[in-house]
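lol forgot to send this yesterday, sorry. struct tokens for the thing we talked abt
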């Protein structure tokens, strides 16, 4: 027990220090981190699985290298990486302006925050509606009518659409499926996007899977179903127009179902509505646990970036600089010992402080309007010519006494 006492004491002191830090942590900094976490996560879920996401990841690596080089005082490396990082941002905006425009167009300010975060979202369908969907799907298969249904679950599907199609916001029914997918309706080639238990959009174009191992019998509809399931946790049901077969897709895996009961069982296991409405406690638990890995990774990344940048801005440096007395009137002289040096502490970014030369700094005390006697001069940033981006934190001594006396008159010869 005694051998473990120091360890417990050290752990307790560490926990206490963390608590004190969090307790007195400025609220506006917490708001800053929370807002940036939300924005970065929104960008991530809208770009994941795309070419733009891979390039954004490369730009992030460049940015981290730039911050590291700047913190280490490597001027040339930080300058080169900083220039490459800025050029890469412009490159992304120019090359992917279509994707960026599409992403911004998908932002719906009427959606609640919980819908944007996809936390505690219970996307479910009643059993009778699932029965109707399964029966309608196999009726379409008997008539060799191609169809593609996408069921949104926890991940937000709308930002992943290549073309949003047409808003329906209607109840899912066999009649609706027949109207949409029976040729020659205008929307029969697109996907039906089901969100929150309703047919939200029709005629949607989905991202295609790049899986080179996919069998040749699968066409564009199946590649689209695989593509959306690879980039989200959405479910897809596909009806082959050529073969009249029904396939189900989940997380990049495609399977063929042969009868209505099998499809109904597959849908019920994943989409059946629970008997009881989730309690507030369960909703809070889902808010913390659903899709938690990318959310936690985003929070950690933003927090680390914040601490690095704040550390860059709040770096401090102390040194001694000389005191210079300027414009002493001819009729006065300084008496006693003069203060020759003061200790100065400044704050600024590490990049600026690394190239700050203390030998070029001085405290200039202007005695132009001084009179005989003792006068105290307070040292402020006005008396020290600091470069831009550097702030004065403290001076010791902060007040310099100067005692002046009249010069004795000069002897005038006959």
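and heres what i got for the seq, position by position
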């Amino acid at each position: 027990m005694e051998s473990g006492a120091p360890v417990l004491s050290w752990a307790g002191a560490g926990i206490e220090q963390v608590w004190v830090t969090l307790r007195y942590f400025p609220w506006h900094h917490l708001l800053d981190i929370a807002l940036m976490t939300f924005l970065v996560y929104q960008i991530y879920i809208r770009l994941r699985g795309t070419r733009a996401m891979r390039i954004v990841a490369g730009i992030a690596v460049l940015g981290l290298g730039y911050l590291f080089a700047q913190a280490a005082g490597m001027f040339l490396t930080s300058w080169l990486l900083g220039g490459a990082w800025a050029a890469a941002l412009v490159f992304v905006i120019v090359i992917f302006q279509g994707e960026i425009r599409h992403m911004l167009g998908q932002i719906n300010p009427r959606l609640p925050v919980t819908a944007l975060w996809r936390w505690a979202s219970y996307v479910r369908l009643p059993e009778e509606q699932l029965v109707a969907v399964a029966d309608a799907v196999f009726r379409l298969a008997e008539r060799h009518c191609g169809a593609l249904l996408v069921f949104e679950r926890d991940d937000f599907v709308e930002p992943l659409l290549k073309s949003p199609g047409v808003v329906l916001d209607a109840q899912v029914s066999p009649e609706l499926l027949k109207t949409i997918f029976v040729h020659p309706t205008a929307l029969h080639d697109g996907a039906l996007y089901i969100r929150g238990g309703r047919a939200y959009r029709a005629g949607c174009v989905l991202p295609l899977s790049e899986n080179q191992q996919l069998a040749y019998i699968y066409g564009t509809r199946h590649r689209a179903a695989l593509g959306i399931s690879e980039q989200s946790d959405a479910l897809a049901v596909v009806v082959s127009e050529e073969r009249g077969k029904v396939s189900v897709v989940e997380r990049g895996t495609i399977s063929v179902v042969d009868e209505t009961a099998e499809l109904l069982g597959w849908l019920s296991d994943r989409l059946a509505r629970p008997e009881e409405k989730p309690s507030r406690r369960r909703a809070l638990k889902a808010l913390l646990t659903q899709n938690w890995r990318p959310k936690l990774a985003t929070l950690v990344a933003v927090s680390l970036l914040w601490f690095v940048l704040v550390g860059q801005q709040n770096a401090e440096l102390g040194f001694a600089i000389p005191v210079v007395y300027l414009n002493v009137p001819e009729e006065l002289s300084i008496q006693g010992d003069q203060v020759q040096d003061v200790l100065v502490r400044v704050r600024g970014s590490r990049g600026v402080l690394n190239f700050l030369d203390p030998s070029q700094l001085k405290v200039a005390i202007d005695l132009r309007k001084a009179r005989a006697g003792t006068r105290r001069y307070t040292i402020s940033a006005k008396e020290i010519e600091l470069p831009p981006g550097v702030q004065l934190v403290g001076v010791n001594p902060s007040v310099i006494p100067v005692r002046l006396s009249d010069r004795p008159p000069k002897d005038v010869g006959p």
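The first helix runs from residue 5 to 23. anyway ping me if u want another try
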